[in-house]
Amino acid sequence: MSFTVETAARTAPATVIVGIDGPSGTGKSSTSKAVAAKLGLRYLDTGAQYRAITWWMLVNGVDVQDADAVATAATKPVIVSGTNPSAPTITVDGQDASGPIRTQEVTSAVSVVSAVPEVRALLTELQRGIAATAERGIVVEGRDIGTTVLPDADLKIFLTASAEARAARRSGELKGKEAVDLTATRDALVKRDAADSGRKVSPLAKADDAVEVDTTELTLEQVIECVVTLIESALSRAGQSA
Fold first, then answer.
1. 18 bridge partner residues
2. CATH number at residue 76
3. How are beta strands 95-96 and 89-92 bridged, if at all?
4. At a CB cut-off of 8 Å and minimum separation 6, what does 85 contact?
5. Domains in the chain: how many in total?
């Protein structure tokens, strides 16, 4: 999915923290960035941080299948996330990692690295710090935001979509960058879902108080409008004006 951000007439209140969770291909990143831009909020892609540390492990010869080795090395890389929704950045030890973290090699290894408790503890602390210091508020996306990282978020949203719809979207994103096999893409997404949902520490899960939004039949613009409306409704119920 891609998006364009128009000058927004709507603004969020003094501070608001929104957590958006869900599996790959549900439109999570595109929606989160666009909503943050519309409401004048910051934006954080926590998945990029897990990809960044995975990329560092691979580049530095750490055996990602060795949980102890990953845990020992986890404190070494310095990961910095830029939170401008119109141009989010991520660096590792001062190096731009936005391109390298999206390779298939990283995609294939990120689930096993992100399952290591020490990695999750380090990045969860980093993510909470970023959210706590965001001016006006932030939209944080990931897989365990509502359940683990920000359990007290003002609003929690869980995006879902059928495996077929998610595979088609992901294939569209990859087209032109590498050969695309729709069936293989779907199988990879399902495998990733199982790994993320089945891990012992902070698995992919919908928080009890999260609002579920099925994006299967929705356009990106419809999803964005739905999420913005949910934020405004939540704030209105809390006695604030958006």
1. 139, 155
2. 3.40.50.300
3. antiparallel
4. 5, 32, 33, 34, 36, 37, 41, 42, 43, 139
5. 1
